[in-house]
Write a structure and sequence with these properties.
By secondary structure, the protein is mainly alpha-helical. It is about 60% helix and about 5% strand. Helix 1 crosses helix 2.
Length: about 110
């Protein structure tokens, strides 16, 4: 089993649901350790965390020790995931978003 880097472990602790049995800590760990194969639900948990951290930064609540490191790790994981948040399609794979966009582009 891979060793989880401490910064990734901090992110996992922030997104691990306390009472939801369907979302296991092991599943979240696996998604964060292999972000290229991340399940959609892990991506959405990370996206929610990123949005809350963005709001915290805008409100000046980003002075906590390690805030910037955790936010950078969240962004790294989101960037490495196969998912994207598209304004028209919602949470889809980047490949699906590109295919849909290309289908809408008129041919010359």
């Amino acid at each position: 089993m891979q060793t989880i880097p401490e910064i990734t472990a901090k992110v996992i602790r922030k997104i691990s649901p306390a009472d939801d049995n369907a979302l296991t800590v092991e599943g979240i760990q696996e998604g964060c350790m292999n972000p290229g194969e991340m399940p959609q639900y892990v991506f959405l948990l990370l996206q929610k965390l990123e949005e809350s951290m963005e709001l915290a930064a805008a409100q000046g609540r980003d002075c906590a020790q390690g805030f910037d490191d955790i936010r950078a790790e969240v962004n790294r994981l989101l960037d490495a995931a196969p998912w994207t948040m598209h304004p028209d399609y919602g949470c889809v794979t980047a490949q699906e978003a590109a295919q849909r966009d290309n289908a809408l582009t008129p041919s010359p």
